[in-house]
Design a protein that fits this description.
Layout (H helix, E strand, L loop, with lengths): L2 E2 L3 E6 L3 H12 L4 E4 L16 H6 L12 E4 L7 E2 L15 H4 L9 H4 L1 H9 L17 H15 L25 H12 L5 E2 L9 E2 L5 E2 L25 H7 L3 E4 L2 E9 L2 E9 L5 E11 L3 H11 L27 E4 L15 E4 L18 E6 L20 H9 L4 E8 L8 E9 L5 E6 L4 H21 L3 E4 L43 E3 L14 H21 L5
Parallel strand pairs: 1-12, 2-3, 2-12, 3-9, 4-18, 12-20
Antiparallel strand pairs: 4-5, 6-14, 7-8, 10-11, 11-12, 13-16, 13-19, 14-15, 15-16, 17-18
Length: 571
């Protein structure tokens, strides 16, 4: 028999960026909020002098234990899905702060095109440009409507950057200047300008200078140590929820965080949620937390899984195209890049920061003509210097043996003579790419695992090869003596890391027939349930998702306050 606790105003499931932002904003207005986090507590002191690449990068010290909970994968509905038991294609985080603790800090705004992709593509190229089985749709909100929330997130996080010449209009400049430009980045900048492209410094949540945000939170500047990705920041220079929004919520006295709390169900009566059921993983006790408002702010897979297990929202049926929970899963196509090897030039590749780089968007969104191309959208292209740690990086030109004398000679020679120009490609949603509950495999609590059905389409393969060619052109202009580039994108497989930019499953839109939530992240059919995060992306852009997740969280917080005052569906 589950123990029932006193009711709270709001219960938040998952305390990362989205959960931390919403807790901060709601407690400022006097609401009592409980935040349930299935992982352990984290603080900056945990990472003092812990540059342990083996523990965190190679052995995934900040990630979920896949022996207790994972996802199953299949490329089509015709084959059996199997559990992912070793980390590969993406890394599911665990603990207070979520992926906001171990992210790189790359903080891009989506393009205006991303939010109106179906209507703008059809208007420019005709409806036949979109394949019949492609499920892309407009978000129901425009870039211009979301822009103020982007601005709020960037000021809170202290984003360093310069304006994207091909991006949407900004109401304000970035709060602090861009980061330092390394020789490799300068070489990329000079080469791309000669090619009439439009490079700009990558927007960074790694502080370029000391900064105090509007909430009064002060943080020190980045030291360029190169330990951002998969690591917590020992300086607090990388914006994360644990050093920005969560302390503000806790300081209010209105926010209670319960770690080691594994939420398993949303409890509901009729079309209203009444709270959540969770298991205290330290004792095994089942606990019910009643609440007036339930806010799902966990990772994509967990948001969708809990909705499906709870019977909240209509499950997606790929055979009929009906239902909304689980539809429009998308990923990212980031294999379309190239690596250049230089005989004379040398670079200090081991220094860096998670979002130290130069980017361009000439081949992103619809910034170039797609009339003669067999794909839509595109990719951002960048050279980034995240810090090439020695275990994870050992570059050698194609054709080099993978062991022996020549392998040793080439990896020593090119350790500081290799530069990768990467393409982070968009991922269009398709009717046969979706999330549902696995009928066979269960987690440690006896609940069904999330099942992922996905594969690369011709759209992705054409895009990857096209972008790889553009990356190679840039490296040639940079003076590379040898260039390795992608020639063909094979089928998707879950064993090779590409990104953790999984999206969709509880998507945003303008109609309850084709979306799970409205533009305030409020569920259409359960108006006191808000689902916030990349799960609401109808398809994925050619960028990292965090800036957009942060913007949506600020808008959702505004919506929750409106709902608290007036009730009903928000417009």
């Amino acid at each position: 028999m589950a123990k029932t606790l006193p009711k709270t105003d709001v219960v938040i499931v998952g305390v990362g960026w989205a959960g931390g932002i919403i807790a901060s904003e709601l407690t400022k207005k006097g609401l009592n909020v409980v935040g349930l986090e299935r992982g352990r507590e984290r603080k900056t002191e945990d990472y003092y002098m812990v540059h342990d690449e083996l523990r965190y990068s190679a052995r995934y010290g900040l990630m979920q234990d896949l022996s207790k909970e994972t996802v199953t994968f299949r490329s089509t509905e015709k084959i059996r899905a199997l559990p992912m038991r070793a980390y590969g294609s993406f890394l599911i985080g665990d603990g207070l702060g979520g992926a906001g603790v171990h992210w790189n800090g790359q903080t891009f705004r989506f393009l205006p095109y991303d939010f109106k992709i179906r209507s703008m593509t059809t208007e420019k190229y005709g409806k036949n440009k979109i394949p019949a089985d492609m499920a892309i749709q407009d978000w129901g909100i425009t870039y211009e409507e979301l822009e103020p929330y982007y601005d709020t997130f960037e000021k809170m996080a202290g984003i360093a950057g310069e304006e994207n010449p091909l991006g949407g209009k900004r109401s304000n400049p970035y709060p602090i200047p861009p980061m330092k430009k390394s020789p490799a980045m300068q070489l990329f900048t000079d080469a791309t300008k000669k090619l009439n492209l439009h490079p700009y410094m990558m927007p960074s949540a790694n502080l370029s200078q000391d900064y105090t945000n509007p909430d009064g939170v002060s943080r020190a500047a980045c030291q360029y140590c190169g330990y951002c990705e998969r690591f917590g920041c020992e300086y607090g220079a990388k914006a994360d929820p644990v050093v920005t929004v969560i302390p503000i919520a806790v300081k209010s006295g209105k926010f209670e965080i319960r770690t080691h709390s594994h939420v398993r169900r949303i409890i509901h009566s009729g079309k209203k949620a009444t709270g959540v059921l969770y298991t205290d993983v330290t004792t095994g006790e089942e606990i019910i937390q009643p609440a007036d408002i339930v806010v799902m702010t966990s990772y994509v897979f967990n948001n969708v899984r809990i909705l499906l297990m709870s019977g909240v929202g209509k499950p997606y049926d790929s055979s009929t195209g009906t239902g909304v929970i689980g539809r429009n899963y998308a990923y990212q196509v980031i294999k379309g890049g190239a690596t250049g090897f230089f005989e004379e030039k040398q670079f200090n590749n081991f220094a860096g920061a998670g979002s130290l780089g130069v980017n361009l968007d000439d081949y992103n969104g619809d910034n170039f003509d797609h009339s003669g191309l067999k794909f839509i959208h595109g990719a951002s292209i960048s050279v980034s210097q995240t810090g090439q740690r020695p275990i994870s990086n050992n570059p050698a030109p194609g054709g080099t043996p993978t062991w022996g004398k020549d392998f040793k000679a080439n990896t020593l020679k090119y350790a500081n003579r290799a530069i990768t120009v990467g393409g982070q490609g968009s991922s269009m949603s398709f009717k046969h790419h979706f999330l549902d509950l696995d009928p066979e495999y269960k987690d440690a609590y006896g609940d069904p695992l999330m099942r992922l059905t996905f594969d690369f389409e011709e759209q992705d393969k054409e895009l990857a090869v096209f972008i790889s060619g553009k990356c190679a052109d840039i490296l040639k202009e940079m003076g590379a003596n040898h260039i390795d580039q992608l020639k063909e994108l094979g089928p998707y497989e879950i064993t090779t890391y590409q990104s953790t930019h999984n999206t969709g499953g509880a998507i945003m839109g303008s109609s309850p027939e084709t979306s799970a939530v409205n533009t305030y992240s409020q569920m259409w059919d359960y108006d006191n349930v808000f689902v916030v995060g990349a799960s609401s992306f109808p398809q994925n852009a050619g960028y990292n998702p965090t800036d957009t997740v942060g913007a949506l969280a600020y808008r959702a917080a505004e919506g929750i306050l409106k709902y608290r005052e007036k009730g009903g569906l928000l417009v």
